[in-house]
Amino acid sequence: MANFPIETHRFRSFDGVELAWTEMGPKDASARPVVLIHGYFSTAEVNWIKYGHAAKLAARGFRVIMPDLRGHGLSDRPHDPAAYPPDVLMRDGFALIVHLGLTDYDLGGYSLGGRTTLRMLVNGATPRRAVLCGMGLQGLVDTQGRGNYFRRVLTNLGSFERGSQEWLTEAFLKTVKGDPEALLLILQTFVDTSEAEIAAIELPTLVVTGAEDFDNGSAQEVANLLPDGRFVEIPGNHMSAVMKPELGDAIAAFLAD
């Protein structure tokens, strides 16, 4: 597999908050852009680069564009609640697409990145194809349910029994050097999407989830709602599926088809 340079850039979003994105892939104009959005607590590096998913897409001729969400990774992490209005991550996604001048592109994400992708789709994004990974129907139509779990973790750090789900979540937070204050504020940006809105998305959409990932409800139900939804199950749970080569294989096969 060819080695492509990895470059990180920064831009100012619609409200002046400075966000980072990382690129990998061919430099020529024929390279097809695909925007991939990482999950909550995570980063572009951890979600897409570390386990080889971006490299697989780059090898297929894609220009892989991977933003760090506000409050995450190399992007700004403001502590002002005003920097976290509802749907701000969706608006940041559109700001990046406008900044890069993308018109013909693909769009996808894992977990919160999948939900952000969906919010972009129901708010007018027009990629050729979309990919929703690690996100079930419950996590889309009732965002506060999952948000309450993370709120409990972030407000009780250091108190969880070793090996518990909460302890593992806190361990991941430490691994990525997450900012608990900024991440708490991210929770107030979540917006529910109705089943009717999901059913109105007509573009080809791949839904991928780990066989043991029950964190956000049924991903199969999401695929069933979509007029052109395709469901692929890969090994792993919510935390481990993102490490599996099958994730990058499924995305690459779908987008290159």
Automatic annotation (TrEMBL):
Q: Which InterPro entries match?
A: AB_hydrolase_1, AB_hydrolase_fold, Carboxylesterase_BioH
AB hydrolase-1 domain residues = 34-238
Keyword annotations of the record:
Hydrolase
Q: Which GO terms describe its molecular function?
A: hydrolase activity
From what superkingdom does this record's organism come? Bacteria
Q: Where are the transmembrane segments?
A: none
- The name this protein carries in UniProt is Alpha/beta hydrolase
